[in-house]
Structure formats: structure tokens, C-alpha cells
């Protein structure tokens, strides 16, 4: 039995400790917003926040999340940074197929939580681990800058 | 996939009042085949619903895989309906012959056909509904229909009286379907041609969009499979004792595709699958290697084959003669969402939940597997986490159906990334040998191409190699060479190394335009001419090619200075009815590493449904094509695929993303496709820029930095 906080709720799961957090979220808890893309932390589709840090949930054993705070895409609307990022994503109509976008939004909101005005290099560093096969990268970059701008204005 | 269909015939319209009120327009789309079936196609299911609150729901039979079809189809209907765009939503249709793609004659999404095939029938559906709403309003007002007009979801009488579509929906449902349907002229368009926002964005930013992998059914088991590591390999024996000992593993099943572990959830299934101890017989392909494939293809191209096009005498004497051999590798699609399907084989019905591009054919194929009639296969099309042609294939739905049939349970079959990468259905490897001739003044005199490649038509399972022996998809982009060469010859040699090949974004154009647009660049260089001007002079009789070529060159500032070390390359292509030229600005480091700084594209796709989606599709295709040009290759050693995940099958990331601008040619031509045509020009635009930068001609993809290293 492992206890962790998921989107503000304390949850106890019976999964074996080595089960990746991704599959606990998706299969045990039925929270399918976090996506499976590669299974080995190469594509970033499974990105969630663990105590505020972006992590790849496909290679994070659930035991490593014990007693910690996990935040997923499903809770982004309840978070001021997440809301700003989602609003910018909508404004720029970023998604195409949309499969990677949970990961992109989790990566972007983690970046903007610690860096209020990211440079292009900051965006590259934070986001280059998250693959988009539809090629929405320029829209992602524009939306991150827009979200930063909106937050700076207090929007 | 490029058949031309006269969409004006065989339209049938029918209405029925919904029990819950509102207007339903059902229509069978052209290409839905035989007239005799028409009566059976009128279903209570509707293609367009107007609720009494005025909300319009468009039921879309096409799969949304990022290309924007769930926005484009509603725009077609909304335009002629004169709907209020803010009150439109879209819903995925079931698999039903009524939703057949007019170009394919089956319900499927691919070949950049959606807008081309539905441009007229969807607008007619909107226009018919509008006419019935007007008739209903005129009846209520006892007015002349000619005195009524429509705007943004309202019928307006010349006196100023108004009724909303919602208020009129019930009465409109009792109106006769108009016999003559008048469509708007392009200058009356109010929605078409505008950058309307995508209807699927809101659910794609909050995790709510449901993809195939997100399906969960009560009692469902998750399956992972071990498949033969060599194409055509067979199972010898399996020891599943360790797999069965894993907590959550319920069953181990052998099917023709391999050995499946069925478990409660992905993680148990994966541990179980990985614990299987299997002996395989590698069979006839045990020695398959990429070197061997290259050799077979090169020999095929050298020998030549079936005549695909022949004008003049390509062997005519020339002052200067040049010859080159080009090669492209097998490619995986590497969709972000690995292949998966959930199937429940019930006693007299099969229900499928999958991100599929081929709902229609799936009904027949899975019905056969599960022993029910095609009409008893219910397909729930989920959002597709990328398609690119891969999700047209039936491998994942067939195996999931077998596993559900055997286990008696709903089964979600999941491919890991590694499974997905190694599951074949690759873009074919291909070799083309060119010979070109120039006269003393450097003018192009002759051009011949010998294409060697596997046949996708034969591999598809639903097409055959034509009687002339020329696979249309193997030669597309070369056979239809637009350049005004007085002597031209194209041949096709079918070479089958034994790997299952498949449609990959832009299909044959994906490698053939790299080949031909590079070789034409070589001809320009040999002639001592500017590659843009050389092409332009040969495209005098091809205004749409020439138009995009000129626009791209102009917007990119062709001939104007660039920062030190940055060089331009250009390429032009037509595919799926749309014309695209791209100029790439590229630098090559001392280490041979290629950086693409900027790409300027120009597109002529005829009339534009949504210019923003058009631009995004060109940009998307550029990224997909760049990934392939810079990194993409599936190789074989000892019969085995050498790549497995994104570390050895790299794809473009945000830090490598060039600036992209896309310019659209204003056009009154019928719409062309848009999901694929942006791809073919990017590889040659980049490699032609590499030639400009280094004097080195890239004749084999992916680009090899080792070859470009400066001593």
C-alpha cells in the first residue's frame, strides 16, 4: 500500500512499488489525461508534476511518489499558471492530434512556475524532452511566451 | 487513392423528424456505391442535427488525427447552412456506409481526400437544411420564400421579422427535401476561407480528449504481444510459466501474429510479455539486411522495368549527360500514440474502440475474423494520436479481435513504443536511377528515371498492381514530372525484399520528390544555371507549379544575401491536388551537422477552407519530413529491425525547429488535399541547400553528417 497525493487528494493504491506512476494514474485511478508515448522517458508525453517538478511518470515508480504531491493535466485548470498556459494554448490553437499536448502543457506550466519570462533558450531547455510528431513546436513557443506575458499583466 | 470521382451525381437527401424534436438531415454521400443500397442507407442516424435551442451538431464520419477534419467538415456544412459558427459542435460518426468517403468508396480517412471528397456533398447537406428552414419560416409567416434570407442561424424576412433555426427546427423537419440545391458562389462565402478556430482544441488542452488508448471497459483485459522478430518468422515453442506467475496475468494466448499475455492493466501485461520464453523459427528472412535490400533495389533500378511514361527519345544524343542513383530507406510512422485497439467480441456483434483511419474496411475485415456480418461490427472511432497512414492498417484491430474472441472478454491490445517501431508497415525503401541530358546551351534535353521499389498497392490488401505492371504509388511524383523535358522516360521495377510496406504521409511522393527535385537541381548545376531559374523556365506550361515556385522564391528573398554560412535550397511538388514550393535556409557545421534555420513555403491548394489549418498542415508536414530527412531510417540486420525507440529513431524536437512561414496562393480552383502535400518538397529543399553550402550532393537519406564533415 502506497499513499500519495494526486491533484490534492490523498490516495492509497495497492499497486506493486515498481509500477510506473503513469500506469497507476491511467489504469488504477482511471486518469487518462497523462499519456503513454515511449515508456523510457524519451518523449515526455507522460509528464506530470511531482512536488512541483516536471517528471516523466513512465519511469517514475509509484514508490518514488509515496508521500509526495502529484499534479496532472486534469488539475491544470485549478492552478493559475496552468490556467494561463491552457488559455494561451486555446488562443494559439496549438494542438493538432493532441496526444502529446498534456505533456507539453505540464512541461510549459512547470517552466513558467519558476521562470516568469523564459528566453528561447530556456524554452528549448525545458521543452526539448517533449516530442510532438505533428510539429506544433512554433505554436508551443508562441503560446508559452503569450502565457508569460498574460501572467505578467496579472491576467 | 487518387481516383477522380464525379461528386455531383448520386446525391440523395432525406429528412426525418427526431423524436426529441429538431431537424435532421441525412444524406448518402456519393461513392456510397450502388443505387439499390440507397434506401437501406437512410438511417435515423443523422449527419446534421439542429436542436430546438439552435445548436448544430455535425456528425463527421472522418477520423481526426490532427489534420483538422473535425473543423473543416463542419465549416463546409455551416457555410451553406448560414449557421452561427459559435453554435456548431462536432461528433464522431459510427462506421456506416452512409459515411463512405466519395473518393475511396469506403469509409476511411487518408490520401488527403477529406475536403476534396466532401467539398460538395457536405455543402449540399447544409444548403438543403437551409432551404427547409427558409420554407418553414415562410410557411409560418405565410410569406414568399423569396422575401426570406438567412444569416447566422436565423431566417430573416424582408419586413425585419426573424426566427432562429432552433425555433424553426421542428417545422423544418416536416418540409420536403428540395430537389434542386443551389450552392453559394465563392464570393458569398462567410465561413469558408476564414481561420475559424478548431473545434477539438478545448478537449485537447485539459486531458479530456479520448484516444484509443484511453478506453476502459468493465472486465476488460490489457494485452501485450510477443511477435516474431523476423518478418515471416514462426513460433516454435513458448514457455509461459514465468509470465503466468506474475500477479495480474490472466491468460497467455497464441494467435497467428504471435503470443499474447492478457492481464489486468498494462504493467502486468508488459511484465508478463517480457517474461515469456519463446523460440522462433526465423524462416526465409533470417539473413535479411539493409545492405541486401539496397543491393536488390539498386539492381532493380539498373535493370529497369515496366514502362510508366515515354515521350520522345530519352536516349537522344546530348552534349552533356549526367547520371545519378538516389536511395531512401524504410521509415516507421512513429505516431505519438502507439498502435492499440479495444475490441469486444459479443455473441452476435463485435464492438471496436480504436483510433483508426479505416472504419469501413474494418467492418468487413473484423467481421470475418469474429464471424459476424460487416453490419454487426460497431466501430467507435476515437481521436487518433497521429495517423500518417499507419492507422489505415488492420494489424492491431485484427489481433485485438482474435484475442477478445478467444478470451471472451473485452481486450485492449497495446503496442509498446518498441512493438510499434518493429511492427513493419513501413514506408518502402526505394532506389531511383536518373539519366539527364543537356544541349550545348545547358538546356534540358532528356530525362529518364528508373524507379525500384516494393508495391504498396499489392501490400495494401485492397488494391492490385495494374496490368501495365506500374505501381501508381511507387512512381507518383516522378511519372507526373511537370518539367518540359522534350524526351522523357519513366520505368518501374518491382522489387520485394519481404517487408510489409504501407502508406506513409504523402506515400510515394515522400521519397520520389526528394529524388527528382535533387536530380533536377543537379541538372541545373551541370548546366551552370540558378536552380530556381532553371526550374522556372521548364515550368512555363505549368502555371500552378510556377506560381508556388515564384511565390516561395519571392517571399524567401531568393538571390538576396544571407548571413555567413547560411545557404538556400528550393524544391516544388504537386501531390493530392495541391502545389507546394519550399525554400530552406540551411547551414552545415564543420562537424557535418545540418541546421535548418528557416523554411518559406508557398501553397496553392485551390479554394481554401481554413487558411490557418492549411498553414499548420504545411508546417506539420515540414516537421515530419525534416525528421525523416535528418534522422529517419529503419534498418535490418540478421532479419531484425535495428531501431526500437526515440533514441535510435530520433525525431525533430523544439530546439531544432526552424522558423516556418507559409504563404497561400489565392485560387478559385477546386480544393486540393492538405494533410500531406507540404511534405515532399522539404527533404530536397534542405539537401539542395546543403549542396549550395558544401558542394556535396546528398543522394541517400537520411542525411549523414559524416559525409558532410569538413576536413
The beta-strand count of chain B equals 28
What structural class should be given to the helix and strand makeup of chain B?
A: alpha+beta
CATH class of the largest domain in chain B: Alpha Beta
Mean pLDDT of chain B: 93
Uncertain parts of chain B = 1-21, 27-45
Q: Radius of gyration of chain B, Cα only, in angstroms? A: 27 Å
CATH architecture of the largest domain in chain A, please?
Orthogonal Bundle
SSE topology sketch:
The complex is a heterodimer of chains A (155) and B (711).
Chain A: E1 2-6, E2 9-13, H1 21-28, E3 47-50, E4 53-56, E5 69-71, H2 80-91, H3 101-114, H4 120-127, H5 137-152
Parallel strand pairs in A: 1-5
Antiparallel strand pairs in A: 1-2, 3-4, 3-5
Helix pairs in contact in A: 2-3, 2-5, 3-4, 3-5
Chain B: E1 12-17, E2 23-28, H1 38-41, E3 48-50, E4 56-60, H2 69-81, E5 88-92, H3 114-141, E6 148-151, E7 154-157, E8 162-164, H4 165-173, E9 221-226, E10 234-239, H5 241-244, E11 249-255, E12 258-263, H6 266-275, E13 277-281, H7 290-303, E14 306-311, E15 320-328, E16 340-346, E17 349-354, H8 359-370, E18 377-381, H9 395-407, E19 411-414, H10 417-421, E20 430-438, E21 444-453, H11 456-460, H12 472-475, E22 487-494, H13 509-527, H14 531-538, H15 543-556, E23 567-575, E24 578-588, E25 594-604, H16 611-630, E26 636-637, E27 640-641, E28 659-664, H17 682-694, H18 705-708
Features:
heterodimer, A: 155 residues, alpha+beta, DNA polymerase, domain 1, 2 domains, 5-stranded mixed beta sheet, 5 strands, globular, B: 711 residues, Aldehyde Oxidoreductase, domain 4, 3 domains, 18 helices, 28% helix, 24% strand, disordered N terminus
